[in-house]
Amino acid sequence: MTGIIESSPAHQNFSRYDTRVIIKFSVILGKDTSCIHKDLVTVLGENTPSIQTVRKWVKAVSEGRDDIKDEPRPGQPVTACGDANISKVLVSLSDDRRKTCKEISTETLMSRTSVFRVLTNKLNKKKKFSKWVPHLLTDEQKESRVNFSRNFFSDISN
Question: Do 50 and 89 fall into the same domain?
Answer without folding.
Answer: no
